[in-house]
Amino acid sequence: MENIIVRVAKEDDSKYSQEIVDEMASSAKARGTGIAKRTPEYVSGKMKEGKGVIALTEGGQWVGFCYIESWGHEKFVANSGLIVSPSFRGRGVAKAIKFTAFRLSRKKFPGAKIFGLTTGLQVMKINHELGYSPVPFSELTDDDEFWKGCQSCVNFPTLTAKNRKNCLCTGMLYDPEWEIETGPKDWNKLYEKAKFAEKNVFVEFDEN
Ligand SMILES: CC(C)(COP(=O)(O)OP(=O)(O)OC[C@H]1O[C@@H](n2cnc3c(N)ncnc32)[C@H](O)[C@@H]1OP(=O)(O)O)[C@@H](O)C(=O)NCCC(=O)NCCS
Question: What is this structure's pTM?
């Protein structure tokens, strides 16, 4: 089993952007669910800004991706666009990417509430493990620019009909204020529990 490295994406990773958006589109089609469409330029922009998380094999094959974006004057940060290449699924790569995106969100936007929208059970499980709670959409950002991202989703008419109060996705939120009671996360413990190393998945993250 080839080693997989998960790390913050760099400008140089732009060469994978087309493959990433192609896989996002074909996976959404296969699932028959909605998705906010992204262009390769958008994905490359995220990489350049240091707001992307990428997974690659040691040999340089693309494995997975996700990005973060701040909303509502940095009061919120969303983790979006999670995708793992079909041949690498079921090895904990999505979890390693989400853990890394979470750490990146905390590092870049320390005071922001972290949230995501999903219809996927796997993603809900990962979010739950990170301490997110399911919330009504009223608890998420009211930044119109964020919700504009839903326009390309097949379920957008439902979101509009419900006055943006709910839709087919579940909204999940993590408030860093909860850490006043719980204390900061013990990443070593979380990584150990996830058994990344046993699955040849290695996370590189610089907290500073
Ligand atoms: C969803 C997706 C990112 C998951 O990637 P992955 O690398 O296979 O996921 P992981 O191996 O990290 O699994 C994460 C968790 O989901 C569980 N899981 C895996 N497959 C599952 C399935 N078919 N049903 C339910 N749970 C499942 C895993 O067991 C793991 O939980 P655990 O640690 O408690 O055992 C991947 O399937 C994908 O790219 N799908 C298409 C795009 C998509 O749906 N993106 C999410 C949009 S919100």
Answer: 0.94
